[in-house]
From TrEMBL:
Domain of life: Eukaryota
Species this chain originates from: Penicillium arizonense
Full protein name: Uncharacterized protein
């Protein structure tokens, strides 16, 4: 079952202010949970700092795997997030697909040894960004 929690136990998503206000007004959770017509969606607002920290950790961990050929990490929620890494004869690519868009900060860029302005973006149905890496594991910035 997908989780809304990071490894530290902190949520990766939270409810919008409107949804949280509605949740705070619920008195009878048994009725709420069983109401098939209404249904209930999960939290939809991504907590950017938690995503940054997650991708920082993944970047430094991946650098310790010089033989890494492929990585795919998915967060399944109302707003999907997919991080992928491919190391093939055609090139080395780090990318992510998500909605809403995600922009790595300097710490994430440093962990993956990329320039934060490098991602090539495809604005189709969802945000799809990728970066071509020069080598793997990456050479340290000079």
């Amino acid at each position: 079952m997908p989780s809304n929690k990071s490894q530290t136990g902190e949520p990766t998503y939270h409810y919008t202010a409107e949804d949280q206000a509605e949740i705070n007004q619920i008195d009878d959770w048994d009725w709420e949970i069983c109401d098939l017509e209404r249904g209930w969606l999960g939290p939809t607002e991504r907590i950017e700092e938690h995503f940054h920290r997650l991708l920082i950790s993944m970047g430094y961990a991946a650098q310790r795997m010089p033989s890494l050929k492929s990585l795919r990490f998915e967060i399944q929620s109302e707003n999907e997030f997919i991080l992928y890494f491919r190391n093939t004869a055609d090139g080395i690519t780090l990318g992510w697909e998500c909605y809403p868009e995600y922009q790595p900060d300097e710490r994430v860029a440093k962990a993956w040894n990329i320039d934060p302005d490098d991602p090539k973006v495809d604005f189709a149905y969802q945000y799809d960004a990728s970066v071509a890496l020069k080598s793997w594991p990456p050479e340290p910035h000079s």
